[in-house]
Amino acid sequence: SAPSTDPDTVGTDGEELMQRYRTALTGVFGTPQRTLVRGEGVTVWDADGHAYTDLMAGIAVNALGHAHPRLVAAVTEQLSTLGHISNFFTSVPQIQLAERLLELSGAQATGGTVFFANSGTEANEAAFKLARRHGDATRHRILAVEHAFHGRTMGALALTWKEQYRAPFAPLPGGVEHLPFGDQDAMVSAIDETVAAVILEPVQGESGVNASPAGYLEAVREACTRHGALLIFDEVQSGMGRTGTWFAHQNTQVTGGARVMPDAMTLAKGLGGGIPIGALVCFTEATSQLLTAGQHGTTFGGNPMATAAGLAVIETIEHDGLLEHVSELATAVCDAASGIGHVQAVRAFGGLIGIDLDVEIAPAVVAAALEAGWIINATGPHTLRLAPPLIIDADTLRTFLQQLPALIDRALTATETKASS
Ligand code: PLP
Predict the structure, then answer these.
(1) From atom 12 of ligand 1, which residue's Cα is the shortest distance away?
(2) Global pTM?
(3) Ligand 1 atom nearest to CA at 119
(4) 15 in any annotated domain
(5) Are residue 278 and residue 164 in the same domain, yes or no?
(6) Per-residue pLDDT tens for 228-272?
(7) End-of-domain residue from the set 299, 319, 339
(8) Residues 56 and 76 reside in one and the same domain
(9) Count of domains in the chain?
(10) Which domain of life is it from (predicted)?
(11) Of all atoms in ligand 1, which is nearest to the CA of residue 124?
(12) pLDDT tens sequence across 170-193
């Protein structure tokens, strides 16, 4: 029988099954994982009935939190009306979501198109193909940036920076060079007629929440236009309202006030609010035509359920004023975090928050937080990341930050104890 999802009964009904899961996952993640069984709003419960406040939203995915009634209703209704159809056909939610994305990005006015996929990685694979199609024998370089994360399939991995992820799979698809992120001179002087595309995250997520310096995106845009290279933004993590604007490249904190339009942009994560989906948004007709039918295609990409979920996410963000709400969270976080011992820097862009510590204990803080009922994340030894559901209230974040000094103390003690044993 199916495992119970009721935290009160799962401990008895599903105990053996959960134990098997834990053992299996130990091999995958290296440490025993807690098995989560239920979520509602910003709270999730594990199989033992412990409650956690979710400040990660499944890595910037659950924009509306867990089990949001509008999302549940949209997906349920869609599945009971029209489920899977394959890419021989289109469907009403698919067309509507494509239209909404073009409208929100401003690409509708310039003849844009949306190609759907099932994840951020897959959307970036499509972007890689777009770059290759734009290129030729002489226009063969693709510029990415250091500390970038774009996914782990072969093409996406070629764009991703971390050597640790890349090395075992060499040789990766060629032509990709990584330049220092935010170094305007380095990027602008590297762009010439041999460059097919530049791809970057307007706000890097996996590197610990680092935004482009003001004016950087504008300068890169100008150089790409001048030399005929495509500019592609990976907004998989930073898009869909996460930074307080629909897309981070529309955020004046990130652009320095300039209007910067890419030639293409990839989305996933928050777009489905928890249902897998990805999208490559092409901003112009010419860019859209680089990929024809058959050059991008997937069985599930743009399926009715996922696109109905995307529409529900967009409608709820609009209906509940979540962009404005999220913008205010950043100020609350910065205020509450100032003066906390061992906190060196806070970078908050709406609901995408990086906290640098002056000691290498971020993973131990994550563990201490989990024990205390908070789900947070570390992107490196020094850096904590928060990417809560957009619906979270500022008081919940303030409460976490009030507890952070105690969590840091616990992490310091745990790290010292480990070092001395
Ligand atoms: N691009 C960025 C900026 C990401 O942060 C991620 C995931 O963290 C990806 C791409 C990969 O997306 P997915 O895990 O949906 O394949």
Answers:
(1) 120
(2) 0.93
(3) 15
(4) no
(5) yes
(6) 999 999 999 999 999 999 999 999 999 999 889 999 999 999 999
(7) 319
(8) no
(9) 2
(10) Bacteria
(11) 10
(12) 999 999 999 999 999 999 999 999
Ligand 1, pocket residues at CB < 6 Å? 59, 119-121, 124, 149-151, 201, 205-206, 234, 236-237, 268-269
Same domain, 234 and 349: no
Q: Could you identify the atom of ligand 1 that is nearest to the CA of residue 276?
A: 15
Residues 232 and 122 in one domain: yes
| Span from the CA of 238 to the centroid of ligand 1 (angstroms) | 10
Q: What pLDDT score was predicted for residue 14?
A: 60
Point out the residues of the chain with pLDDT beneath 70.
1-32, 421
The secondary structure of 79-117 as a DSSP string is HHH-----TTS--HHHHHHHHHHHHHHTGGGGT-EEEEE
**Cβ pair 236, 159 in contact under 8 A:** no
Task: Write down how long the chain is.
Answer: 421
**Ligand 1 center from residue 126 Cα (angstroms):** 13
| Angstrom distance (rounded) from CA 162 to CA 286 | 32
Residue nearest to atom 5 of ligand 1 (CA): 237
Q: Token pair for residue 25?
A: 């996952």
Q: Are strands 51-54 and 374-375 parallel, antiparallel or unpaired?
A: parallel
CA of 236 to the centre of ligand 1 (A): 6
HSE (side-chain half, CA atoms, 13 Å) at 240? 34
- Give the pLDDT of residue 6: 53
Residue ending a domain, choose from 298, 319, 340: 319
Q: Which residues pair with 312 in a beta bridge?
A: none
| Complex-level ipTM | 0.99
Q: Which atom of ligand 1 is nearest to the CA of 59?
A: 8
Structure tokens at 209: 């929440």
Q: H-helix or E-strand containing 143? A: strand 141-145
Is 155 inside a domain boundary?
A: yes
Residue 60 CA, ligand 1 centroid: distance in Å: 10
Checking DSSP bridges between strand 383-386 and strand 377-378, what pairing results, if any? Answer: antiparallel
